[in-house]
Design a protein that fits this description.
This protein is an alpha+beta fold. The chain has twelve helices and 22 strands. The chain binds shikimate-3-phosphate.
Length: about 450
């Protein structure tokens, strides 16, 4: 089957209300917490994507029963020490950095060696950033080329709590250490550069022994040994990282308006909203509420006029880390030169997104200057593409595929965008929702 889309026309104007799929970070975390709970937890609107399935299949290999249909997922947890470590377990994290990294934190006390593998993209990513702090608890690791997958975990019962300074703003590193902290006797201290805080909020909701003190740039976290986790029934709100594609699609389309319902707008995730508002895009949250500690709202957005360039403050980076590719599309149409810096973490994602984002802009005829950690984008409010663009060999990165679709639908040109299947990792319904906007 042909694994690409061909787009030759811009999208026509639309006024609609849509739902996008469940939040990926929350879905994977729910699976992990539920797998350690005492009893049956149930989730609705769980993201049924390959990344989340990797997490579900992973806990199944650890002896946890699950049941899944289109509407609900049930996980039959057996308590904090309920994992079974059979001989030669191999967990395949596939494309999922979040599952691959977080589960390692939960396996620091495994009684048998466990091997973690992933697909070719995940196998290029840095796992030393996880194993370095976890080693200090007393667990041993063997990594391919000292930093990559496949890796093997050699757990220990004798886990010492640690002090950890997280400097990258990585929620995956922070969360893996919190999970390992569950298992150590005594208090683990973390000083973490700001990043998404879903793990901490779930811990708080479950009344686990965690304390978080917020300072301007860092969170100071204390975590103690956990003996019991209660079951958790959760209706997963929608993912702002999936909503982002539709926010940008609407902003860059003519005469259009969109409502995206019930999106997780946790303050640690809304960097894109702050950035786009500063660029003069009209976005509003309505019906804001708190659900199990997480902020949720309907997002209202409309076609943009007079987009302004931005010199993006670096403190907004972590809250927008998965959205920069689509933010670059807005900058491509802004009046003036936009500048984004301190972005070396972007090249640590499913593909080197800073480098590849710059390459897509160049293919679109958008002048830009990229360095190791920054990009300057020379915006053109009259940008209109008239040529053929082929997007191929971008490491099957789902966000590259979806960004290219949005660019094709808003700037014109003839686009052949390969690796359509990549959307299965995070947003399988993406193309279906686009189609429905045109009905
Ligand atoms: C995630 C954290 C971020 C983000 C990823 C999901 C999470 O990664 O890019 O898509 O759920 O914790 P880093 O921890 O590498 O910044």
């Amino acid at each position: 089957m042909i694994n690409k889309v061909v787009i030759k026309n811009k999208i026509s104007s639309f006024k609609k209300s849509i739902n996008v799929s469940g939040d990926k970070s929350l879905s994977i975390r729910w699976v992990l917490f539920a797998s350690l709970a005492n009893g049956t937890s149930q989730a609705k609107n769980l993201l049924l994507s390959e990344d989340v399935m990797a997490a579900i299949n992973g806990i199944k290999k650890l002896g946890i029963k699950t049941s899944l249909n289109k509407k609900t997922c049930k996980i039959y947890g057996k308590g904090i020490d309920g994992y079974q470590y059979q001989k030669k377990i191999i967990l395949n994290a596939k494309n999922s950095g979040t599952f691959g990294r977080l589960i390692i934190g939960l396996l620091v006390n495994a009684s048998r060696p466990i091997k973690i593998i992933g697909d070719s993209s995940l196998s290029k990513r840095d796992f030393k950033r996880i194993t370095d702090p976890l080693k200090k608890f007393g667990t041993k690791f063997k990594l391919y080329k000292s930093k990559n997958l496949p890796l093997t975990i050699y757990g220990t019962k004798y886990l010492k709590p640690i002090k950890y300074f997280e400097t990258r703003g990585s929620a995956q590193c922070k969360s893996a250490v919190i999970f390992a902290g569950f298992r150590a006797k005594g208090t683990t201290y973390i000083k973490a550069k700001k990043s998404r805080n879903h793990t901490e909020l779930l811990c708080k909701y479950l009344k686990l022994p965690i304390q978080v003190k917020k300072t301007k740039n860092y969170d100071l976290i204390k975590i103690n040994n956990v003996r019991k986790i209660n079951t958790i029934n959760y209706t997963i709100p929608s993912d702002i990282s999936s909503a982002a594609f539709f926010i940008v699609l609407t902003a860059l389309s003519e005469n259009s308006k969109l409502i995206i319902k019930n999106v997780n707008v946790n303050p640690s995730r809304v960097g894109i909203i702050t950035i786009l508002k500063r660029m003069n895009i009209k976005i509003e949250f309505k019906n804001t509420k708190i659900y199990k500690g997480e902020k949720v709202a309907d997002i209202f957005v409309e076609s943009a006029k007079n987009i302004k360039a931005i010199n993006c403050p670096t403190n907004l980076n972590s809250g927008a880390i998965d959205e920069f590719l689509v933010i670059f599309l807005i900058a491509a149409k802004a009046k003036g030169i936009s500048y984004f810096s301190d972005l070396s973490e972007l090249d640590q994602k499913e593909s080197p997104r800073l480098k590849l984002g710059s390459k897509i802009l160049r293919l679109m005829g958008v002048q830009n200057i990229v360095t190791k950690n920054s990009i300057k984008i020379f915006g053109n409010p009259n940008l209109n593409i008239n040529k053929k663009i082929i997007i191929k060999n971008f490491l099957k990165d789902h966000r590259i595929f979806m960004t290219s679709v949005i660019a094709a639908l808003t700037f014109g040109g003839q686009w052949n965008i390969h690796d359509k299947d990549s959307i299965k990792t995070s947003f399988p319904d993406f193309l279906k929702i686009i189609k429905n906007l045109q009905k």
